Amino acid sequence: MTYLLQVDFKMNGPFGDEMAEAFTDLAKSINEEDGFMWKVWTENPETNEAGGIYMFETKETAEKYLNMHSKRLSGFGVTDLNAKIFAINSKLTAINKGPIN
After folding, report:
1. What is the Cα–Cα distance from 101 to 88, expressed in whole angstroms?
2. Which of 5, 96, 98, 101 lies at a CB distance of 3.0 to 4.6 Å from 54, suitable for a disulfide?
């Protein structure tokens, strides 16, 4: 069963192309995490929020990543992290063209 990790937090930028440039190395490093499948990066400059939706192969790998990522974000000064882990219903998700195995 696959697991989705939803993360969001307050951030004062950068956003858009500047965000892409600033976090390219971070994005590449995420690909190397155990059990990582994919990520959608999220941002809302109007509300100063950013985050992502991640897919992991197991609940354990999602939890491991969240623990590491929480510490990393804390080091960046993020104090209001919201995070949730959900199991994926792959049969229903497939009907709606969700990108899972």
Report:
1. 11
2. 5
